[in-house]
Write a structure and sequence with these properties.
- By secondary structure, the chain is of the alpha+beta class.
- The protein is built from eleven helices and 16 strands.
- The protein has helices spanning 65-79, 109-121, 157-162, 208-215, 224-246, 250-270, 274-302, 314-328, 344-359, 380-387, 392-400, and strands spanning 4-8, 11-15, 22-26, 29-36, 40-47, 52-60, 86-91, 101-102, 125-126, 136-137, 147-148, 151-155, 167-170, 181-184, 333-334, 340-341.
- It has a six-stranded mixed sheet with strand order 4-5-6-7-12-9. The chain has a three-stranded antiparallel sheet with strand order 1-2-3, with no helix packed on it.
- The protein is extended and about 100 Å long.
- The model has no long low-confidence stretch (mean pLDDT 81).
Length: 401
Amino acid sequence: MESYRRRLGLKTAICNISGKIWAFVDEEYEVTFLMDTVQQLTQNLFNGDIEGEMVVTLVYAKCDRIERIELWDSLYNLASDMTIPWLVGGDFNVITDEEEKYGGLPVSLNEVEDFRHCIQTCNLTDLGYKGSVFTWWNGRGADDCVFKRLDRCLGNFEFQQLFLGLEITHLIKLGSDHSPLLLECKQHVQQFKKSFKFLNFWTKHVTFLDVVKENWTTDVIANSFMTFNVNLKTLKKVLSIWSKATYGDIFQQITNLEEVIKAHEALFEADPSFANREKLMKVQTELTRVLHLEEEFWKQKAGMSWFQDGDKNSKFFHAHVNGRRKMLQLKRIQNSVGQWIDNEQDMADEAIRYFQAQFHETVVPTRFDILKHVPSMISNEQNEELVAVPTKEEVKQAVLV
């Protein structure tokens, strides 16, 4: 093993054989090398205090497709008997989708397929991100301006189950053409199931009515109310898919376009040519369009009928919605003996106890005097007929009619 180690205070600095991949590990972890190549460094990290271990693979891939095959092969070998949490992250120098690139030459589908096949075969999943989609910029302008997502984090199922609240943030590029990736490994997360929300701005799209007409059909033979209910459920699923394909994530688009605009603004200031100005205005127009959709979203979300067109202060709408949510939140409650409690778990336990007491019968009633106050709507003779066992003739008539 030709890896280089050096102790730095409470951390150990580890470098791979190429000298381009560095890892800084806290002393509380026992480090075991599993694989060390020019393009990746894989270590097993064990923490004796929590008796837990995981594998971390740090990547710095080659720019050439043929040379990256060595990297894919090494990941295949690691994945063949991987049964513990596994994190793979770094600069892969390749994208997985055309949407992860802006500008430059057309995407090489062969390179993309190689990377996708490796991810799928190794049972890895992209762990997502917050911030701009692009992690690399070539620093050029005009027709030579290129943005890509070359850096990412992947994880297997065991890793995702270990850190349910995992968050990855693409930080700003500072002193490098790559964005640093901040990985926060949170083990707990409060999950909410989002309900379907109809967005009013959908109706302004030219294909909206066609989508509704094509999917407002059902093979169910039932009454009008049942048919209407089935149609609504079907349309809800279709509109969710249609919205994702038509509009995508508008908030992510805003973040991406803002970064592209910053780059074009800097280039236009350095070279105020007609071509640079045209490209800047093109991206600004696209941002304006997406901002309008964001405005419509928050207008509906805030539920303010007095909204005036032209007010694009989405932060105000966001604050208004959050304000309504806070008003509905319970900060403290009184328990059964009149004491105030404000701990979240204690409030949840008290709520369960309260409703259990409400709907649980502890004493079987023996007195029915209250029934005397209930007015009789039928006579004793009518009641005897209602509780009488039906005759064979009555059953036969009811079945055959």
